[in-house]
Histidine ammonia-lyase
Amino acid sequence: MIQLTGNTLTINEIKKVLFDNERVEIAKASMEKVNQSHEAVQRIVKEKKVVYGITTGFGKFSDVYIDSENVEELQLNLIHSHACGVGEPFPEMVSRAMLLLRANALSKGFSGVRPLIIETLVQFINAGIHPVVPQQGSLGASGDLAPLSHLALAIMGEGEVFYKGERVPTEVALNDTGIEPVTLQAKEGLALINGTQAMTAMGVVAYIEAEQLAKQSELISSITIEALQGIIDAFDEDVHVARGYQQQVDVARRMREYLSDSKLITRQGELRVQDAYSLRCIPQVHGASWQALDYVKEKLEIEINAATDNPLIFDDGEKVISGGNFHGQPIAIAMDFMKIAVAELANISERRIERLVNPSLNDLPGFLSPEPGLQSGAMIMQYAAASLVSENKTLAHPASVDSIPSSANQEDHVSMGTIAARHAYQIIQNSRRVLAIEMICAMQGAEYRGIEKMATATKEFYDKGREIVPSIVKDRIFSKDIEALAEWLTV
């Protein structure tokens, strides 16, 4: 059971909820804070104080006072009008993460919602009901307004959800589970949608996949080194300690461990004095990507425990402040950073693919073909990899440097963080396919060299890979192999 406090959630705990269906509950102490905050909102409404989003309109309408008898209608109108998401829905796993992160943020007790709202979010998680949330339509400031409005629709019993492997009207899932839809009261609609949980949920899922892919890239490139009889001296610890980046040192160490008992690696001067950069500089390049991923993880673990709505309620309602914690710039920059980091893993991988297939750069059969000339072998796999890394370069353009004013220029700088997170996820999918292509080529190259000479670690990975993609003995539809191996690397 994962207990939400609003302050202690980790990415490892999120993994358990997303992939192991770990159940969730709210800490009792947190619920007490939530209730106190809600009572403060009730007093504000009763005393007819002018407080943004509670007794006023939203955005440019923040100067319009709303009478107490209309506060529920105000919240309902907010969700209906802001549910403007378009395009394909977020992956179901991301929608699940949104529920979890919104429940955790509201559990901090700064938002003024009833405990019922958080309890309903948790019921959705534990029942496996995941709102259908369109991916496009968020500017990443004022919160992820459009995506989170679709999440709010679900707990109101409206919209659509993913449930038991199907996309169904929300009421179908609620009737099946006995969960009651909620009617939003003062501040609750705003509290649900004023936050960064769409970009952060997408970012967390992307980070989890990126971290796994970065680890796999080291094993895959180790097989490539064996296939090309690479020089192990370039991974010597002294070289990397001399530079001082810990992530670079760590990559070199893991590569040495993977290749420790290989009979296919060489020493300086045995076959050549130096390898090409795509082999020799793996620790430097991959290590730099790890530096970026470490930064991303740090920012995500702050954001998943952050109060990101507006206004925030402090001191039992004595202090209610309109601020800008909903602004997604910290996550936008982190997502752009992750885009570059993962794109570079694919970039250097594609160059290793070229070295594996180009007969001018190695002594293996041209394009790893079983019959060069008659059969093309891996020739067009390199084309596909080149296409993917080129697409990544376009996607890696930073979203966070863009801004378009909104709400009649009241909201005049926005983060585009949700776009950054979505593009990061696309880059990860592309990069995984590039690394799958490298693995197919590396396995074939190692086979030509003699798999009995492979290191224990790489041979074990090779054997698992061969269960998915058999040896190339004849040209076939390699698209199926690439997709199958990429799917295997995802699990």
User: Anything to note?
Assistant: The mean pLDDT is 95.
